[in-house]
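Lecture 7 notes: from sequence to structure.
We start with the chain below.
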Amino acid sequence: MSDKSSCAGREGPIDKSLQPLLIHGLKGIEKEGLRITPRGSISLSPHPVQLGAALTHPHITTDYSEALLELITPALSDESKMLGFLTDLHKYVCANINDELLLAASMPIGDLGEISIARYGTSNVGRMKHLYRQGLSYRYGRCMQIIAGIHFNYSLPEAFWPQYQQVMKHNGDLQSFTAHAYMGMIRNLQRYGWLIPYLFGSSPAVSKSFMDSRNSAYSAALEKFDETSYYKPFATSLRMSELGYASPVQAMFHISFNNLDEYIGDLSRATSIPYLDYERVGTKVGDQYRQLNTNFLQIENEYYTSVRPKQVTRPNERPLQALRSRGIQYIEVRSLDIDVFEPAGISIETARFLEAFSLLCLFSRSPAHGVKQYEEINNNTLSVANKGRDPALKLLNNGREVLLRDWASMLCEQMQEICQVLDNGNSDKPYTRALHKQMEAIRYPDLTSSARMLAEMRDQRLSITDLVLQKSREYKSYFQNSGLDYSIKKDFDLQVEASLEQQERLNNATEIPFDKYLSDYFSQGGAASKIYSPEHVSPGSGFGDNGHAAKRSC
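Predicted structure tokens for the same chain:
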């Protein structure tokens, strides 16, 4: 590259007054995973009662389907403890799903002919969550909705922001300054976000059953690997490609990330303007609801994007209202595949890299995005998802072609100071080592998870179904044999019991009619918010991300 500075935005070293604060950033994981039968088909059994009530459990819930579990860690500053908590959740789940397995991959395998939508009981809040998912099935199809992934949540410590505001010589409101900085971080996570599927993409192939069920026009672009597997030779993450979470309807409207007000305004419009095809489906036919409404988006979190600004929601509060009232509390990175080679789906090195990468995006220049910039970002992401390991692949940076490996290397070079700060004097240099591991994967693409998957399939003559089932069985055995500390198991048992009791109270509560409940929710009137107090339903009664955003403190 003739002008490396065009690919990087750091403006000098990190101010010394900020460095001690950076080590206290909060990290959290939301990890989805399908329950499958021993033969690989999606489970048709209800959410196991042994795991508690999906509506009210703080750490074990469901996503779109009864079979699609979501495991949620607390927000912790120690990434080792965070990954340890995620591992303990896996141990507990594997001990309570009988002979079923947790799918060790993002893309479903096996028979997908029947997919049950998640249910949350008879309360108004539970009915709304189910109805939202029913609407998704009409809009996008059920197969798309059971693609699983990992969300990485990150926030700077509260003490960081006033000091950073002082360093940046900003004299305004702290909440506004924080939102401005987070939105800049998000734009850079979008601009440079193609690096995540390149390094951590783990879905270069899909099963024929998924391809047939997905019924996508993009399936024709895949090559046949064997009788039951299709792939792209240089693909990193078909989950992030047109075959995965992509919506032509959502491509019709533009959501600005240039500032929080524009983001809220654009999403508000998308959730209030009807779309003709959804009007044909109808909101309600007779006495039966089909979806929450006929707008481009039923609710704001239906919007598929690689990263989101987030604020903890209060009971029955809309996510946009939470952002409008209290600003941004943390960011949610949504572009991670489940790593087939990691028992819990993500390694501690990956978590460390993502933390450092997020800070690079905070401290780098972040110009506003126009529509052309968003198109460039989307095209770069799709190029990496479909052919990221092609050594000749070039991406666009402000209209200029750049070799992926050159741009990726430059970004990693700029992360070195950040990793040194996060190492915090540790002689093992865990963040620096995590960075160097990914720098090697940039030099040698065969080290990436996507390349390793295809290599194992070739070397062992495995289909994608064979490989994923092999790993799923291996990890279930690993979690069952490693054992769960008695005190941790007791805590989880108590959470299960408490969640079932909360669910029962909700189901038996006297409530306003469901129609009025929905009306109050969408108008953000006072009536809905008076129905429940925090002790009556676990925090986070929103509906995107399964409504469990408030169960994390970051």
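Points to note: Confidence is low (pLDDT under 50) at residues 1-5, 525-554. Residues 486-508 form the longest helix (23 residues).
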